């Protein structure tokens, strides 16, 4: 049986979900971002119990097909931006369509309808959060950050950063309390 879980954005989320499922006595076969494969089917009461315990940790079971697809889009983008060294050799629309085996127009319309924003804006917001993280670490130059995240230049990255945050990357680095958003709140 496959469980689809909302708000899983990092390896710690995988560990927390696995632990919560095992605590509930469920035989877990695999856990990935947004999904858990379990050995046996669950009764409606067991599903409700699991959902309640996951909600206490900030997660949520997804029961509808559209919700699962949207969560897959988000998880693929989060993984690409925050957890992978992969750089896109194609545009985002082709990459997502290939990854999820859906027509991009369908994915885009569904995402916009449900989330109230575009996939592209979601992708940009994830990239900007990653830039903020790297700026705070202060280990890479802006040009190195741009290169690492697949921007064509530091100038393009700087322009997009200012458009999204209202600040230049250089000014952002000087702020003592850099307010980064949680990945699952984007």
Automatic annotation (TrEMBL):
Keywords assigned: DNA-binding, Transcription, Transcription regulation
Pfam families reported for this sequence: HTH_18
Domain HTH araC/xylS-type span(s) in chain numbering: 96-175
Name this protein carries in UniProt: AraC family transcriptional regulator
Organism, as annotated: Flavobacterium album
InterPro entries linked to this entry: Homeodomain-like_sf, HTH_AraC, HTH_AraC-typ_CS
UniProt superkingdom: Bacteria
Family matches, as PANTHER family: ARAC-FAMILY TRANSCRIPTIONAL REGULATOR (PTHR43280), HTH-TYPE TRANSCRIPTIONAL ACTIVATOR RHAS (PTHR43280:SF28)
Organism phylogeny: Bacteria, Pseudomonadati, Bacteroidota, Flavobacteriia, Flavobacteriales
Gene Ontology molecular function, alphabetical: DNA-binding transcription factor activity; sequence-specific DNA binding
């Amino acid at each position: 049986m496959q469980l689809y879980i909302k708000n899983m954005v990092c390896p710690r989320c995988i560990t927390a979900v696995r632990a919560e499922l095992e605590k509930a006595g469920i035989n877990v076969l695999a856990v990935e971002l947004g999904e858990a494969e379990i050995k046996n089917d669950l009764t409606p009461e067991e599903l409700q119990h699991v959902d309640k315990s996951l909600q206490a940790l900030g997660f949520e079971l997804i029961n509808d097909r559209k919700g699962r697809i949207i969560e897959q889009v988000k998880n693929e983008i989060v993984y690409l931006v925050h957890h992978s060294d992969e750089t896109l050799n194609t545009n985002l629309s082709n990459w997502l369509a290939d990854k999820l085996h859906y027509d991009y127009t369908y994915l885009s319309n569904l995402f916009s309808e449900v989330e109230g924003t575009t996939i592209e804006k979601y992708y940009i917001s994830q990239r900007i959060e990653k830039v903020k993280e790297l700026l705070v670490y202060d280990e890479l130059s802006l040009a190195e950050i741009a290169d690492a995240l697949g921007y064509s230049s530091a100038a393009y990255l700087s322009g997009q950063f200012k458009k999204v945050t209202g600040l230049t990357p250089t000014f952002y680095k000087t702020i003592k309390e850099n307010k980064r958003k949680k990945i699952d709140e984007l």
